């Protein structure tokens, strides 16, 4: 199984153009044959293609420099040099390509989508291009244009319709495993989930949707605490977030506010996304404690909250139906 990697930095350079040729027609019985130097070929461009078969950027960890070939030089007898083939970077669907300064160049969200990043250098002109009525034997040709080069940052953002957020051990992975065929790692200790996971959830409203589980956040994640907030990029494309809060914690309201603060500090519109709030692991809490936690969470969220237990299948269908409704609304908006 490939190791998951969602960020990489690479150097790319398109190919130089081939040089034009200085040549003259030389035949025994042809006097003043004139110039016949051909043009140089086009240098290879750098392209990026989104492929459905890839789900990690790990290949770019082991190879970081990519250079396209230069065009072939022109030759006599009006022969144009061959164009160099383009160099194609095959990346997972959902990959953003940015400059080293952070400017976004491409966002590849559809399988098979293919776009040019850097164009190859143009081929030089042969001396046949410089022939005029007053200069019938030009000895001038131009060199091919140099290729372009730059450092690029690749960032993979999983394509999911809905996302799970919450503190470590909030029950996100257990929920994903209960509603889909995904088999995320589940443990009794924090940070069991170290990389994002996807699962396909089937329902009656709109067929199915993709649900993303990201590693848990902690207070100060936007400063790098715990695993930091780098995985939040994987829920930027989601139509709705399911915010799970452990009913067995000390204060559900405080836990909710912690995650909301991290979403707000991260930016990218996450804090403004539609949100469903739910207490998880309610089967492990006594009724009086459950009522207290639910009231605290509802007050912090400013809305009614769901209560669910993925292990006991309690409240799960209600949560899935709520997610599906938001996803259906988002898809209807895209179709309009």
CATH topology description of the largest domain: Rossmann fold
Please name the CATH architecture of the largest domain. 3-Layer(aba) Sandwich
Give the full name of the CATH homologous superfamily of the largest domain.
P-loop containing nucleotide triphosphate hydrolases
- Beta strand %: 15-25%
Give Rg in angstroms. 29 Å
Mean pLDDT: 91
Can you lay out the helices and strands and say which pair or pack?
Layout: E1 7-13, E2 46-51, H1 59-62, E3 65-67, E4 87-92, E5 95-99, E6 104-108, E7 114-118, E8 149-156, E9 162-165, H2 172-179, E10 197-203, E11 207-213, E12 240-246, H3 252-266, E13 275-280, H4 287-301, E14 306-307, H5 316-335
Parallel strand pairs: 1-3, 2-4, 9-11, 9-12, 12-13, 13-14
Antiparallel strand pairs: 1-8, 2-7, 5-6, 5-8, 10-11
Helix pairs in contact: 3-4
Short recap of the structure:
The protein contains five helices and 14 strands. The chain has 336 residues and is of the alpha/beta class. The protein has two domains: 7-156, Spo0b-associated Gtp-binding Protein, Chain: A; 162-335, Rossmann fold, CATH 3.40.50.300.
Would you kindly provide a written description of the structure presented here, covering whatever features stand out?
The chain has a six-stranded mixed beta sheet, sandwiched between helices. Strands 3-1-8-5-6 form a five-stranded mixed beta sheet, with no helix packed on it. The protein folds into two domains: 7-156, Distorted Sandwich (Spo0b-associated Gtp-binding Protein, Chain: A), CATH 2.70.210; 162-335, P-loop containing nucleotide triphosphate hydrolases (Rossmann fold, 3-Layer(aba) Sandwich). The chain has helices at 59-62, 172-179, 252-266, 287-301, 316-335, and strands at 7-13, 46-51, 65-67, 87-92, 95-99, 104-108, 114-118, 149-156, 162-165, 197-203, 207-213, 240-246, 275-280, 306-307. It is built from five helices and 14 strands. It starts with 6 loop residues before the first strand and ends with a helix. 43% of the residues are buried. 18% of the residues lie in helices and 23% in strands. The protein is of the alpha/beta class.
């Amino acid at each position: 199984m490939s190791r998951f990697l969602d960020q990489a930095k690479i150097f790319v350079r398109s190919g130089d153009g081939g040089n034009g040729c200085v040549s003259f027609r030389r035949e025994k019985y042809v006097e003043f044959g004139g110039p016949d130097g051909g043009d140089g070929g086009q240098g290879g461009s750098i392209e990026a293609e989104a492929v459905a078969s890839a789900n990690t950027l790990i290949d770019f960890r082991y190879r970081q420099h990519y250079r396209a070939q230069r065009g072939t030089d022109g030759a006599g007898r009006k022969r144009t040099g061959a164009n160099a083939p383009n160099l194609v970077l095959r990346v997972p669907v959902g990959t953003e390509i940015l400059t080293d300064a952070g400017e976004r160049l491409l966002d590849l969200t559809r399988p098979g989508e293919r776009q040019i990043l850097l164009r190859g250098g143009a081929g030089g002109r042969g001396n046949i291009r410089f022939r005029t009525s007053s200069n019938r034997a030009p000895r001038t040709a131009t060199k091919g244009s140099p290729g372009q080069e730059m450092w690029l940052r690749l960032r993979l953002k999983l394509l999911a319709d809905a996302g799970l957020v919450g503190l470590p051990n909030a029950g996100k992975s257990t929920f994903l495993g209960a509603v889909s065929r995904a088999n995320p790692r589940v443990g009794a200790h924090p940070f069991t989930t170290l990389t994002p996971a996807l699962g396909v959830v089937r329902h009656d409203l709109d067929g199915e949707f993709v649900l993303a589980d990201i590693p848990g956040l902690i207070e100060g994640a936007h400063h790098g605490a715990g695993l930091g907030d780098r995985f939040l990029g994987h829920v930027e494309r989601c139509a709705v977030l399911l915010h799970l809060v452990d009913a067995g914690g000390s204060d559900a309201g405080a836990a909710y506010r912690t995650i909301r603060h991290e979403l707000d500090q991260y930016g990218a519109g996450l804090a403004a996304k539609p949100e469903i709030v739910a207490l998880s692991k309610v089967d492990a809490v006594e009724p009086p404690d459950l009522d207290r936690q639910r009231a605290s969470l509802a007050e912090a969220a400013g809305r009614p909250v769901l209560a669910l237990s993925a292990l006991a299948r309690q409240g799960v269908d209600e949560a899935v139906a709520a997610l599906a409704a938001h996803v259906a609304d988002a898809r209807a908006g895209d179709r309009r």
